[in-house]
Amino acid sequence: MTTHTYVPGLAGVPVTESEISYVDGQKGSLEYCGIDIEVLAEKSSFEETCYLLLHRRLPNREEFDQFNFSLSHHRRIKYSIRDMIKCYPDAAHPMDALQAGSAALGMFYPLADQEDQVQAQKDLDMAAIRLIAKMPTLVAAHARMRVGDDPITPRDDLSHAANFLYMLRGEEPSALEARIMDVAFIVHAEHTINASTFSAMVTASTLANAYTVISSAIGTLSGPLHGGANEDVLNMLDDIDHVADTEAYMYQKLKRKEKIPGLGHRIYKTKDPRATLLQKLYFELSTQGGPDLNYEKAKIIESVAAEILGPKGICPNVDFYSGTVYRKLGISPDLFTPIFAVARVAGWLAHWKEQLGNSRIYRPQQIYIGQHRQAYTPIEQR
Asked: For the chain, which domains are there?
């Protein structure tokens, strides 16, 4: 008789082999296709990082220029999609709007006959380009239209990050703001097999189109156990009235055994390298506008956590500083998770392409714990 071991949440169970990203949770390191995330944050751009993830190598100048040109010239969305966004309820959450918009894109860009291999490959490449290019437009358009403003037409002359901020705010961001948004996109672009990436892979294994794959990943990310912790960090910081109260606040939460938002990760047992990078960005933004009390509170929380929780491997994760960075950029908290999706679409698509190269539909087992040979009772006798 074959026996199976049940592992809740598939924790630690390998489900694929991949060349896309690597995490060392003990050392606190993250690599995209073998390149350290800190190197990419310092020297690369989100556009180049997207190419790296999709093709598993860095582009040469000609390849990058063509890729960048394609991204910048596919940012616009069909007027029918804009009209669809206008029909969403005023209270529609931006993640629901993004999921619906991403799925709708697939109806406007159907795949060619898959027997034409050359055209099929072009369609796959263009689907990736369109999704990366148009998702920021979907987010920004809904963000403006839900408050009665017209969407802002994307600009081809701006970088991916600068154009996103421009479409949200109606004014061109400073060089520092654009660079900070760019790095935030880079650090969120990929992170091995998390829940949303696995959802994308399961959908991809059925040979569903890219738009459906990304829509399923967005739906998974929308759950509070996956996205949204950065909003909780902001709420925690706002709950602390004065910087001097922060240490006592932390000790009280620890005494009550309450979860501290932004601390702890399933893989990292030391500080998340993405948190370190985002902290640097937050510091840069904070120093420009004078003292930032929330930054001072965050440093104290991290210090107390390092003393009490650090030995247990509970350290700041990517969410600890990301929300504070976004708020400094003037972004509404309910857009934080959609921004995560705008960046992570690169990683989702990379896994989608890798899955297509070794396509086998996922079909896990279950362990049945119900009863057998139960009698059927007619409805009149129940």
From this structure: 16-222+338-357 (1.10.580.10), 229-328 (1.10.230.10)
